[in-house]
């Protein structure tokens, strides 16, 4: 972990910030040709291609009839997992569902003289969830993706996951997933986008994945809708001298264990805190840590502690990075809330540790990464609905606005637009 002293100088002048920001750049030239080939093969050969790619990439030999995981396996997994884990899944789904109910939108209609204008809210019909199965399995992602879709009223939810373990299957059972497919990678995204003999064609694909999944979603956007193109995970902690260095270190490690590209960033006004956090990470927490190899690589390359002059500067640094997860562990964390403009999720206070948000609190953990928090939001109910404008115009209403439409059409030189209004105005 690198300690960088920014006191007394403009933070953007330091190369470390640019290094962190660019770490998630997709190596398009390297991977895109492979992804495009996979998409083309799945589109043209369907299940046959899925079986081939599953054996090639996941080392699992399947027949087409094995692509669908029987519902009985989901129920069996639910009954087999530990009682306390099963209860945690149930509580998590309930809390996340209840939180997202606050995001529901309503249709509305507005009447004025001779017109009815409004907006109709319609849930998507079929949504596909992608759940990774590589270096770690994420049953929490099943719940986070499925709960807002259920709140929105999506009619059918299907899920793709390579070699899902019993916990992932149990989470799918809790969420009432309609169909689970035993496939992953770019081939799973292509299958859900185009449909195959076995895999259901969907309207939207949500959920994180590796670079192959991210590029497949990017290439298939337009054929199907997507939630976002997720990059490596990241956490930024703003802390002052009152923060507990052991707690801060543990929070940074919780991101580093995700993968080697994860970024764990501390921005603090206390040089003493920065040094203690680094020492505790390496001498205590990483010692005998189960995922030490991954976490240590992440911290060695992308772990940074920035020392700044004051908390206002800390907020500026955070806004520039626009982190996926932001923790504010200061004496008065609420004092900084209005100074934060770009963050996927904001955790306030020393007990609001990011893993609570990952699992149980209620707000969604599917968040914008790689600075996308500057313009996008966490996954929510709004991602699973469509808005249609509704327009009714009577003769009276038409007479009120027709001349303005004619004049605007004239200014744009669109004669047929003008004609379609004039032909009614002249009652031809």
TrEMBL record:
One of its GO terms (biological process) is L-histidine biosynthetic process. Its cofactor is Zn(2+). GO terms for molecular function: histidinol dehydrogenase activity; NAD binding; zinc ion binding. Gene3D superfamilies: 1.20.5.1300, Nitrogenase molybdenum iron protein domain. It catalyses: L-histidinol + 2 NAD(+) + H2O = L-histidine + 2 NADH + 3 H(+). The active site is at 324 (proton acceptor), 325 (proton acceptor). Keywords: Amino-acid biosynthesis, Histidine biosynthesis, Metal-binding, NAD, Oxidoreductase, Zinc. The keyword Flavoprotein does not apply. One of its GO terms (cellular component) is cytosol. Its EC number is 1.1.1.23. Substrate binds at residues 233, 255, 258, 325, 358, 412, 417. PROSITE patterns: HISOL_DEHYDROGENASE. Signal peptide: none annotated. Catalyzes the sequential NAD-dependent oxidations of L-histidinol to L-histidinaldehyde and then to L-histidine. PANTHER family: HISTIDINE BIOSYNTHESIS TRIFUNCTIONAL PROTEIN, HISTIDINOL DEHYDROGENASE HDH. This is Histidinol dehydrogenase.
């Amino acid at each position: 972990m690198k300690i960088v002293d920014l006191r007394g100088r403009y933070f953007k002048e330091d190369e470390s910030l640019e290094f962190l920001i660019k770490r998630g750049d997709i190596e398009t030239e390297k991977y895109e040709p492979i992804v495009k080939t996979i998409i083309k093969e799945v589109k043209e050969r369907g299940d046959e291609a899925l079986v081939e790619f599953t054996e090639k990439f996941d080392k699992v030999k399947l027949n087409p009839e094995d692509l669908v995981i029987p519902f009985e396996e989901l129920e069996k997994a639910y009954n087999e997992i530990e009682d306390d884990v099963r209860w945690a899944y149930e509580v998590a789904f309930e809390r996340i569902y209840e939180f997202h109910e606050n995001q529901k939108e309503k249709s509305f209609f507005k009447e004025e003289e001779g017109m009815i204008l409004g907006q109709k809210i319609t849930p998507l019909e079929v949504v596909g969830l992608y759940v990774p199965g590589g270096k770690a399995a994420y049953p929490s992602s099943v719940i986070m993706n499925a709960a807002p879709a259920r709140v929105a009223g999506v009619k059918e939810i299907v899920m793709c996951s390579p070699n899902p373990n019993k916990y992932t299957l149990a989470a799918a059972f809790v969420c009432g997933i309609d169909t689970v497919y035993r496939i992953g990678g770019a081939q799973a995204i292509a299958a859900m986008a185009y449909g195959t003999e076995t895999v259901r064609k969907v309207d939207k694909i949500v959920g994180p994945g590796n670079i192959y999944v991210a590029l497949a979603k990017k290439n298939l956007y337009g054929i199907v809708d997507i939630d976002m193109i997720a990059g490596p995970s990241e956490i930024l902690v703003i802390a002052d001298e009152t923060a507990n260095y052991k707690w801060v270190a543990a929070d940074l490690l919780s991101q580093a264990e995700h993968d080697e590209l994860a970024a764990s960033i501390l921005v603090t006004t206390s040089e003493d805190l920065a040094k203690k956090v680094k020492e505790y990470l390496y001498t205590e927490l990483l010692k005998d840590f189960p995922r030490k190899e991954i976490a240590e690589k992440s911290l060695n390359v992308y772990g940074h502690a920035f020392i700044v002059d004051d908390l206002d500067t800390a907020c500026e640094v955070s806004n520039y990075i626009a982190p996926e997860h932001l923790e504010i562990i200061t004496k008065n964390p609420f004092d900084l809330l209005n100074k934060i403009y770009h963050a996927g999720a904001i955790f306030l206070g020393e007990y609001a540790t990011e893993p609570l948000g990952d699992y149980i609190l209620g707000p969604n953990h599917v968040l914008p990464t790689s600075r996308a928090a500057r313009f996008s939001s966490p996954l929510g109910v709004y991602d699973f609905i469509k808005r249609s404008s509704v327009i009714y115009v009577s003769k009276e209403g038409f007479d009120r606005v027709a001349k303005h439409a004619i004049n605007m059409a004239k200014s744009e030189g669109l004669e047929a637009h003008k004609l379609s209004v004039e032909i009614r105005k002249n009652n031809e």
